[in-house]
Q: What sequence folds into this?
């Protein structure tokens, strides 16, 4: 049965895994889309629907199976006519990508121009702004989870050092549940220098550390505009960055563990520093 037309979008049927029109999706786990084409890969129906619904990132193309096509139909209606939507069976899609795409939905997306950290700092002027700074956070799961929490708790922007992983890596985007699509982010050269720049802008800088002599996060002095600094899993923040911050805070735990996973500790800290009263969904 032929697939019905979705608004002005006519899906293009792909039956050959070697079809050159879907070359960007071939062996997607190993392809460096950033350096070769200035793209990133969004995976999963929920995340792809978010890509199509937001305005910061522009889709290059979409590759879907029939069930996924029906699932994201409402958002596909809004994409540009020139954006191809490729339709393949699950078997053909898996052959193209080199592994099983269990939700049957991928989108290649233009990265656009990177944002400037200085501009993000200047824009942090709302009365209760909260920023997050990641120092050398190299794990994609952790970074994706940080962006998910950032979206949940009203964080205004995320700054990342050069050694931190790419927030637009496919796995990080997926783990973030699309949070990386909505939270502005930028690269910085030095977390310590960023702390000094943020302090100069009137933003209280807070270093997250397991050190026992740090403030328990519930007891830390309150500030309206804050930047939460989070270090890599294991080593944590560098001494230079901790020294450059106004406060040190910790998430207290029992004696059974000496520290928490980066993303777990970050989520707890972001919730504690949430800029606005959080409202539950009705």
A:
């Amino acid at each position: 049965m032929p697939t019905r037309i979705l608004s002005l979008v006519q899906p293009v049927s792909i039956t050959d895994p070697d079809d050159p029109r879907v070359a960007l999706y071939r062996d997607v786990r190993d392809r460096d889309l950033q350096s070769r084409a200035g793209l990133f890969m969004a995976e999963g129906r929920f995340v792809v629907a978010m890509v199509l619904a937001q305005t910061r990132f522009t889709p290059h193309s979409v590759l879907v199976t029939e069930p996924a096509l029906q699932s994201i139909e409402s958002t596909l209606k809004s994409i540009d006519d020139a954006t191809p939507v490729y339709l393949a069976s699950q078997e053909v899609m898996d052959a193209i990508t080199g592994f099983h795409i269990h939700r049957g939905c991928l989108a290649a997306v233009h990265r656009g121009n990177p944002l400037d950290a200085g501009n993000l700092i200047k824009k942090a002027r709302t009365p209760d702004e909260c920023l997050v700074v990641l120092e050398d956070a190299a794990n994609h799961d952790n970074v994706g989870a940080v962006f998910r929490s950032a979206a949940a708790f009203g964080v205004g922007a995320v700054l990342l050092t050069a050694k931190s992983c790419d927030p637009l890596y496919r796995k990080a985007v997926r783990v973030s549940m699309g949070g990386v699509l909505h939270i502005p982010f930028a690269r910085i050269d030095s977390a310590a220098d960023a702390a000094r720049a943020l302090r100069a802008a009137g933003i209280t800088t807070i270093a997250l550390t397991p050190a026992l002599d740090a403030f328990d996060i519930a007891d830390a002095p309150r500030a309206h505009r804050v930047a939460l600094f989070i270090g890599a899993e294991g080593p944590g923040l560098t001494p230079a960055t901790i020294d450059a911050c106004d406060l040190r805070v910790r998430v207290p735990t029992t004696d059974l563990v000496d520290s928490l996973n980066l993303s777990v500790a970050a989520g707890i800290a972001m919730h504690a520093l949430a800029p606005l009263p959080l409202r539950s969904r009705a």
